[in-house]
Amino acid sequence: MLHELEGQGVLLDALAAEVGKELDPFDLLLHVAYDQPALTRRERAQRVRKRNVFTQYGPVARKVLDALLDKYADQGITTLESDDVLRLQPISQLGSPAELVRSFGGRPQYRGALQALARELYAPPAA
């Protein structure tokens, strides 16, 4: 969807600079198009941490998820979607990519955890 918008001439980086906050593209579009209050990426990451939703994972996997939340807050969702994210600092200090994937139980479980993380990041606030 982001590539389609850019293909239509919507320059998200320029729009983000004008708004002046570290917003996820989702929040940026909601804010500009629908005048919705915008959450910064850091605020979204903090909401996920407060909900404590990753208790089913072991200690190493939880550290990986916590580091991924920091990466999201600093760099956005596209970093989390990268196959190289487990090679980036400080995540790589937790172990090799293969070791980190094993901490989730394997590649399918790791991918599932990433999908769950994305769902939690974009979940509506609890009532």
From TrEMBL:
This is Type I restriction enzyme, R subunit. InterPro entries: EcoEI_R_C_dom. GO terms for molecular function: catalytic activity; DNA binding. GO terms for biological process: DNA modification. Residues 1-122 form the EcoEI R protein C-terminal domain.
